[in-house]
Amino acid sequence: MEPEFVRKLAALQKMSCPELRACWRETFGAAAPKGMTKDVLIDRLGDVLEQQQSLAVRRPSRKGGTRIKYFPRPGVVRKCMYKSQLHVVKETESGFEYEGRLYKSYSAITRRMTGRRINGLNMFGITATPPKKKYTL
Q1: pLDDT at residue 46, as a whole number
Q2: Contacts of 90 (CB under 8 A, 6+ apart)
Q3: Which long-range contacts link 83-88 to residues 24+ away (Cβ below 8 Å)?
């Protein structure tokens, strides 16, 4: 994890509930839903931080377009549902672990899951496109 990400996450955990609600309003442009506890606010705001730290990068391709290259972050666990089954992938230093085997990419995993060639980054909700609204924490 990047030191800045860790620092911001630690700052969230030290905030009081009213401070977290103010941070929510600044981030999303609306009041936090009623009934959200301090832990839920920290989790949701932490998810925004994690999305900002995504290591998906757009690179030029040989055909003149762009392609996305994703670099694994050890310890990150991603989940997706396919045909009513939960599929869990753990990122390691040497690749992506799925059902006890190591794969080079999310696309290789989705091919194993589905039997077809599908963009693995899309299936697991990873994107290199920045969000429409700039989140500030």
Answers
A1: 78
A2: 75, 76, 77, 96, 97, 98
A3: 87/113
